[in-house]
Specification:
Blueprint: E1 6-19, E2 22-35, E3 39-43, H1 50-57, E4 66-75, E5 78-79, H2 85-91, E6 96-99, H3 103-106, H4 113-124, H5 129-142, H6 148-151, H7 161-173, E7 179-183, H8 191-208, E8 211-216, H9 219-225, E9 228-233, E10 236-242, H10 243-248, H11 253-260, H12 300-304, E11 310-313, E12 316-318, E13 322-325, E14 328-331
Parallel strand pairs: 3-8, 3-9, 6-7, 7-8
Antiparallel strand pairs: 1-2, 1-4, 4-5, 9-10, 10-12, 11-12, 13-14
Length: 339
Amino acid sequence: MVGSEVVLDVQDLTTQFNTQDGTVHAVNGVSFALHAGEFLGVVGESGSGKSVTMMSLLKLIPMPPGEIVNGTATFDGEDLLTLEADRLRDVRGGKIGFIFQDPMTSLNPVITVGKQLSEAVRRHTEASKKDALNRSIELLSTVGIPDPDQRVKNYPHEMSGGMRQRVMIAMALACNPEVIIADEPTTALDVTIQAQIIEEVRSLRENLGTAVVWITHDLAVVAGLADRVIVMYGGRIVEEAPVAALYSEPRHPYTHGLLRSLPRLDQKGQELYSIDGQPPNMLNEPVGCSFAPRCEYAFDRCLTEQPVLRGVGLRHAVACHWDLIDNVEVPLSETEVAL
């Protein structure tokens, strides 16, 4: 159940990477709010800034070359971006859990999963070794791993990909966090295991009331999970809407293109739509809309002026100089509408 309380408020987050080739403008002024118990989907193609945005919040990006140059991220009355290292370590895992994309590189290969889970529990609570081990067994059972009292003795390589990902979910849940950020947690898994992991997360969210941020490029997954969706392109949010509104009335040409590229049962035999062109080179921050070179609706203003995120409906916002509904072009009002 989604509450009205905002548990995480991000404003104007800007992250860059200073490389030998120049400055990579990975995240450019991202703002969003996450409500208690909400399931927020974050979608976009590779390089759109999804993962860097969320990793920046907990300072999980390598610094250097990464640098958070602007913004705030308010959580429990504190700005995560200005916290001291010790205090931030208390928040990571304790209040905000993070599920990484590849469990094999995220788990230590020479330490049993039970010990790794116990370490997370003891880091954020006053549990004894025995209590931490019992909690680890309970966590493995919660995420659907059979024989958890035996599996705690396993090393990561003794488990399947699906089981390792379940261990990562268990680790993220170890201290009953208020927020879980999942970075494409099912990408490396086969479809059957993907469905099982998604069902586990859905069940845990409903039972524990944890707010979830699910980063993915798979719009089909988001359709069945999310309450609200953020669409990112070129390091910016280009559209934000409740999931039903996004799928029924996409307002940004990029979102519209993504949805048209999905296979549909009612359109058998039709060729799938593809968005022409390539994602922007983030070494060169665009003056206008970063999607303009690939957009069939672009006009002069798109090339010279960065569109702002403006309200176009109930909790629905779009960053575009045009409004796109059912393939009909309608100029947007010059007046920004507050969400």
